[in-house]
Write a structure and sequence with these properties.
Structural class: alpha/beta
Helix content: 40-55%
Radius of gyration: 17 Å
Largest sheet: 7 strands, mixed
Strand order of the largest sheet: 3-2-1-4-5-7-6
Distance between the termini: 54 Å
Shape: globular
Number of domains: 1
Order of helices and strands: HHHEHEHEEHEHHHEE
Number of strands: 7
Number of helices: 9
Strand content: 15-25%
Length: 241
Amino acid sequence: MGNPFYVPGEGRAAAVDDLFTTVAPKYDLVNDALSLGWHRRWKRRVLRMAQARPGQTALDVCCGTGDIAVGLAREGVAVCGVDFNTAMLRRAQSRLDGIAASVELVRADAQRLPFADGTFDIVTVGYGLRNLARWERGLEEMHRVARPGGRVVVLDFGKPDNRILRRAYFAYMKAVVPAIGWAVCRNAAAYAYILESLNHYPAQNGVAAKMRELGMKDVQVVLLWGGIMSINFGVKAAPVG
């Protein structure tokens, strides 16, 4: 029997929306438990790679509860955070004390971003691309709204190249992660979904290949914990001619 939150095709958006509505109240707590707090360090690594400077503009796609968007705003950047899920946006809104003037939150579909071409200096996504019905379309949209020279940074679960590490990691994701999800928010299926979605996602190597296909420069893959997590980085090239 498949995971109720993993629905192939265009019906996936509604299922993922239901998932995040379910987990939103304890989303950050579960992330801390699953990663032993390391997700915060990984997001700080995203901020460093984004090379944010005061006065720049940034888009954080699938912004969730706002970790990356808030971090960018504290660097003096004007940030727009977009997410499809209203409950997650409410959680993000509650964290904007002192920086509300620098952050705009918008409910939008990452596969159809409501922004003009070449709008942002920085475009980030943390743990979101994998959840889209068409992750390639999401990355295409991120590339489209980045300015020439703009940085695109993707953080998500990876797939270790080392077979022993991969087996151990997938076993942990199958057995331990749903148990933690049940213990903290009484929903094992919502966290079993992570492995289900990862099985259908090409992870760091597929994202890097797509970045190159889009013509991005300086494409990099940063492996965290041996590839259990990964960061993809690319720079939008200037138009030719």
